[in-house]
Structure formats: structure tokens, C-alpha cells
Specification:
Mean pLDDT: 88
Largest sheet: none
Number of helices: 17
Distance between the termini: 61 Å
Number of domains: 2
Radius of gyration: 22 Å
Structural class: mainly alpha
């Protein structure tokens, strides 16, 4: 039950503030919204907030941004959802664009390379922390442990595509729920009886919503195809990140390895070290961590501008990447939020999510190994260990795990250490 419905202008001001302060990853962002929306203003009650969070965990994409969209939708319909969701993203997108531009302008400078030596090393400790955090939350049974190990081996040893790992885990979870539900310990919310009236009207509204947002999602791709053709890098960027938006279960870390390997090895948009740099920049900006996709798109457009000027191509690429990454998030919420009570009561769906979350632990562990190979060893040669990166990574791990410092503080100290050791 909503205690007090705010004016639309109050909603906009509140989410503008949240969007500028939403550092610290999804856990911190969700806590920030809980304090601002539930505790201080009473706009949404505790139970509704937690049920909406459960729904957001079911959907692909950044759960914190989708939760912001749901809050806006709950309070002021579609325009409220658009306002809250966009204000959660736009500040971080603007900051990331500025940092990306600075990155390409300062590339090649000795001090700049030393600075990012420290940032890349800190990213290793941050990803290791993500493995531990996700593991503690997701691996509550032996079956989940086995599933996490299997996904790690499939990705690391056999190079199985990430979307296939996620699909297999979800199907397996739904099947296991019918045979041995205790293996997954999935939690089905009991919200009482769900009214059946209005089902047909709700289904028609959902179809209309999906059709509208699919058209919105595809609009820039149609413009790119009509003006630059399907061979241009902008088409490749839009198509790749559109596919990524559909399989982004389990948070940004889950898809980073897949995105990094495809961006580096398949498309050649950037180097492994630059991918780590991008993640470090994303950790310092407000908003969803998946904003690192904008950095990748920016570099791809800058380096393969075609008939466009590099800055123009990079600007369009960054905008297109952000569009195809976040437009589907609005579609998922506007289409699924009215069905929330029903979705939470489907055991097979909850079991599939539990299995996917367990598999994501192995996916993030694979990301940690991938980054370690490229940051700690030159040219991935295990005989060429970079002691400077190793030392900074240990320092970052101590700050994170022993002294419980924030990610922002760890990145700042590591960057300073990189500047010092970069002279050696």
C-alpha cells in the first residue's frame, strides 16, 4: 500500500538526486532507493518494494534501474516510469561519455598509462569481491555449487557461448523444480489469491506495450540501416548490444566476460587492457555498472568512423549503445509489472532464476580469470608476470576485504599507486 502519492515534480526531483548519488553498484543503489522512497518518504511500502525487487531479479538487465522504473510506474504510470528510469541512467551516461572522451584524447601519454595500470589491477580485486558476494547469496545448496562449477568449466575450458550457458541453466532449473525442488531452494512468494478478472484486457495491454517498445528499441537501428548500411560499425554495435540486453541476467559482471571477449576477439573494437580500463571507469560513475557498454561503443565508433568524423561516430555509437541497452529495460517493466503477483507465484520460473543465479557465479569467476590473465601477465604469457600490477592488486584486495573501504576509495588509491609504480 502506498502511504502518500507524490506530485510528479517531486518524483522527478527525487530521482534526479538518486541518479546523481547512485554509486556503489546495485546493492548500494537498491539500498539508497529504499531509504529515499520507502523509509523517508513512504511513497511505497516495504512489501511492495521487496516484491518489485523480486520481479526485477527475474528480468534481464540492471535490476536497480528497473526497480527505479517500477517505482515511477507505480506512482505515476508510464510517464513516471520513464522519468525515474531515465534519471537513474542519464547522469552516469553523461559522466561516462566525458570520461570516454578524455580516455581517447589522453591515450599514449606516459602518466595516463601508469594511472590505468593501477585501475586495471584494482578491477581484479573488485571482480573477486563480486564472485564472493554473488556466491554467498546464490550457492545455498550442493546442486547450486555444482551448477556454478559446471558453468565456470564450460566457459573457461570449452569456450561455450555465454547465452547458451544461461539458457541451459534456466531450462535445467525449471526441470529440477519438478523432480527435486529442494536442490534449488527457490522461494515462491505467497501473496494470497490472485484475481482472475480482467485477464484478457491485461493480455491485450501487454501485447500493445511489447509491440510499442519493440518499435522504439528498433528505431535507431532502422535509421542506421537506411543511412549507413548494415556493414557499418554502428549497425554491428547496435545488433551486438541488443542481443546482450536480452541475456543480461545476474547483473553486469555476468555478461562482462562475454562482452569483453566478443568486443576484443570477434570485433577488435578494443584491447583486453582497455576493457579493464572501461570497467574501472564504470565503477567510478553513478548509475548501473552495465554503463561500461557505452565505453565500448564509444571506442568502437571512434576507431572505425567510416564516412563520419571520429567524434561524431563515437557520439552516435555511445548514444546507440545506451539506447539498445536500456530501452528493453523499460519494455520488461511496463509489460511485466502488471503481472507481478502472478509471476511471483510460478515455481518453475523462480527455480529457473535460482539456477541462472547459481550459474552466474561461475560466469563471474570466469571473468576474474580472464582479467587476471590480461592484467597480471604480459601477452597472456605466464612467464611474464607484471609485478607492479600484482602488487597493486594485493593492495586493492587488502583495502576491500580487510579494511572494508569503498570501491571508489580503492580505485583512487590504486590509481595513485599506479602513477608511482609506473615510473619504475
Amino acid at each position: 500500500m502506498i502511504d502518500s502519492k507524490p506530485e510528479f515534480n517531486d518524483l522527478v526531483r527525487t530521482f534526479a538526486r538518486i541518479g546523481c548519488l547512485s554509486f556503489g553498484g546495485p546493492a548500494g543503489q537498491i539500498a539508497l532507493m529504499h531509504r529515499e522512497i520507502v523509509e523517508e518518504r513512504g511513497w511505497v511500502d516495504e512489501g511492495a518494494y521487496l516484491r518489485a525487487l523480486n520481479l526485477c531479479h527475474l528480468l534481464p538487465g540492471p535490476e536497480a534501474q528497473q526497480l527505479a522504473t517500477w517505482i515511477g510506474w507505480k506512482l505515476h504510470g508510464v510517464r513516471g516510469g520513464l522519468a525515474a528510469g531515465m534519471l537513474f541512467v542519464v547522469p552516469g551516461a553523461l559522466v561516462m561519455f566525458g570520461l570516454s572522451l578524455l580516455y581517447v584524447m589522453a591515450a599514449g601519454l606516459t602518466w595516463f598509462a601508469a594511472l590505468f595500470l593501477g585501475i586495471k589491477a584494482a578491477v581484479l580485486a573488485i571482480v573477486a569481491q563480486a564472485v564472493i558476494r554473488v556466491g554467498k547469496r546464490a550457492l545455498g545448496t550442493q546442486f547450486k555449487l555444482v551448477l556454478a562449477g559446471a558453468s565456470f568449466i564450460a566457459l573457461t575450458a570449452f569456450n561455450v557461448p555465454f547465452p547458451l550457458v544461461i539458457l541451459f541453466a534456466g531450462v535445467l532449473g525449471a526441470l529440477v523444480a519438478r523432480i527435486e525442488p529442494d536442490w534449488l531452494d527457490a522461494h515462491v512468494v505467497d501473496t494470497g489469491s490472485v484475481p482472475e478478472h480482467g485477464k484478457r484486457h491485461l493480455a491485450l495491454q501487454t501485447l500493445k506495450t511489447v509491440a510499442t517498445w519493440l518499435a522504439i528499441w528498433a528505431l535507431p537501428m532502422v535509421l542506421v540501416a537506411a543511412t549507413l548500411g548494415t556493414d557499418h560499425v554502428l549497425w554491428q554495435i547496435g545488433a551486438f548490444f541488443s542481443k546482450l540486453a536480452v541475456v543480461t541476467f545476474g547483473g553486469a559482471y555476468a555478461v562482462l566476460a562475454y562482452m569483453a571477449q566478443a568486443s576484443v576477439e570477434q570485433f577488435g573494437w578494443l584491447s583486453p587492457g582497455e576493457m579493464a580500463d572501461g570497467l574501472g571507469l564504470a565503477e567510478t560513475t553513478p548509475g548501473p555498472l552495465i554503463m561500461v557498454t557505452q565505453f565500448v561503443g564509444f571506442l568502437a565508433g571512434w576507431r572505425d568512423a567510416g564516412p563520419l568524423a571520429p567524434f561524431v561516430a563515437a557520439l552516435l555509437a555511445a548514444g546507440l549503445t545506451t539506447w539498445v541497452t536500456f530501452a528493453p529495460c523499460f519494455m520488461w517493466i511496463f509489460a511485466c509489472a502488471p503481472w507481478m503477483d502472478r509471476l511471483e507465484r510460478v515455481p518453475s520460473l523462480q527455480a529457473a532464476l535460482a539456477a541462472i543465479t547459481a550459474a552466474v557465479v561461475g560466469v563471474v569467476a570466469n571473468l576474474a580469470v580472464w582479467f587476471a590473465l590480461h592484467v597480471l601477465f604480459r601477452n597472456e604469457n605466464l612467464l611474464l608476470f607484471d609485478w607492479r600490477a600484482g602488487l597493486i592488486a594485493v593492495l586493492a584486495a587488502l583495502l576491500l576485504f580487510r579494511f572494508k573501504r569503498s570501491v571508489f576509495e580503492v580505485l583512487a588509491v590504486s590509481a595513485a599507486a599506479g602513477l608511482l609504480l609506473g615510473q619504475v
